[in-house]
Write a structure and sequence with these properties.
Shape: globular
Distance between the termini: 36 Å
Strand content: under 5%
Number of helices: 7
Strand order of the largest sheet: 1-2
Helix content: 40-55%
Number of strands: 2
Radius of gyration: 16 Å
Order of helices and strands: HHHHEEHHH
């Protein structure tokens, strides 16, 4: 899929800044994901960061075997400290070139390391948009991560065996729209979503 590795650090830092900007009063607010409040989105970001960190390390077990839809994620009282820490660990784990080789597992699915990395990047980019949109924050994802996410989502949308988008039916977006809006549409979200 790729001859080079992508540094997840710039995008994980974007997510950490967004999380820092979430007030306690916003935790119950809706996000662009139906039935998912801000607290659940933060819980999902925490869980996927642990899972993809462990996938990079090839430390397979409970964290990498659990399907994302197995439980509604939530946050504990220490999430403001725990999430930035795990995001740093996630980025650091994918800096090891060995993480991008061989097979690994995430969400209970076995996949090549380089595919797992791109899935992790896509999750960070799209859920970063979800969190920013839900909490009224500006969002500028890392350009390299955004391009990787868009390319991944476009390939999935064009794969007839998938039947369209990964997270839901593709939302049509004009081809001249900014890359972020096109990626969001390919993810099955409406780029115009507001709380």
């Amino acid at each position: 899929m790729t001859d080079t590795t992508l540094d997840l650090g710039p995008q994980t830092r974007v997510i950490a800044r967004l999380a820092e900007g979430v007030s306690d009063e916003q935790l119950a607010d809706a996000t662009p994901c139906p039935g998912c409040a801000v607290r659940n989105m933060l819980g999902h970001l925490l869980g996927l960061s642990v899972a993809f960190r462990d996938a990079a390390r090839k430390d397979l077990g409970v964290t990498t075997n659990t399907a994302p839809e197995a439980a509604a994620p939530d946050i504990g009282p220490g999430w403001r400290v725990e999430l930035p820490k795990v995001l740093d660990e996630l980025a650091d784990a994918w800096r090891d070139p060995a993480a991008w080789t061989g097979m690994t597992r995430a969400g209970g699915v076995d996949l090549p390391g380089e595919v797992a990395a791109v899935v992790a990047v896509d999750e960070l980019v799209i859920h970063g948009w979800d969190l920013a949109r839900a909490t009224g924050q500006d969002y500028t994802p890392d350009p390299a991560a955004l391009q990787a996410s868009h390319d991944f989502l476009l390939a999935a949308a064009n794969d007839p065996s998938r039947g369209g988008g990964i997270f839901g039916p593709v939302v049509p977006v004009p081809p001249q729209a900014p890359l972020l809006e096109r990626a969001v549409g390919l993810s099955g979200r409406d780029p115009g979503w507001t709380p």
